[in-house]
Every structure is written in structure tokens, then in C-alpha cells.
Amino acid sequence: MIKDLLPRQVVCNERNAKGKPCHGKLKRYYPFAGYYNEPDKTLRQEIESEFGKKKTLVLLKCEECAVVFRLPGELKVKFG
Ligand SMILES: [Zn+2]
Q1: CA distance 42 to 12
Q2: How confident is the model at residue 79 (pLDDT cuts 50, 70, 90)?
Q3: Residue 60 burial (10 A CB sphere; 0-12, 13-18, 19+)
Q4: How many CB atoms lie within 10 A of CB 62?
């Protein structure tokens, strides 16, 4: 699943089975960089169909539940 990062969002807002927000840490994530390609085939295809297979593509991924977030334009600067 790929979600939109909300303004000022710094932790994961995906809800778990009990309906509680995950609050996992969001890490920068390069799904197609040579040294670490996304191992989940379904997720890789989802990302590739939306963004293309760019090595420089940067998204955010939750360390707890592995949900992927799109970076809005203004956050691209902050996260590099
Ligand atoms: Zn999460």
C-alpha cells in the first residue's frame, strides 16, 4: 500500500488490527536503488506502475508495519 504523507506527519498513521495508530518510525527508502531493491514483488509492482523504475526514487517506509508513503513536494527538501 502507498499512502500520502500528511502535512507535518513524522510517524506512521496506519491503524493496526485493534484500530490503534501504528506510530512507527518513517525511514527514507529507495525501492529501486541497486544496493537495496524492494523484496516484496506486489509492492514493487505498485510503486513501479505509479512512479516508474527510477533508481533515484525516494519514498518513506514505516519500520513497524512497512506501509510506504509518498513524499509531498515540500518534504523532498527536508528528507533530501
Ligand atoms: Zn506503520
Answers
A1: 21
A2: low
A3: buried
A4: 21
CA–CA separation, 71 vs 46, rounded Å? 16
Write the single-letter amino acid at 40. D
Phi first, then psi: give them for residue 36, nearest 5 degrees: -150, 100
- Whether this prediction's pTM lies above 0.90 is answered by no
Cα of 25 from ligand 1 centre, angstroms: 7
Centre of ligand 1 to C-alpha 77, Å, is 23
Burial class (CB in 10 A: 0-12, 13-18, 19+), 61: buried
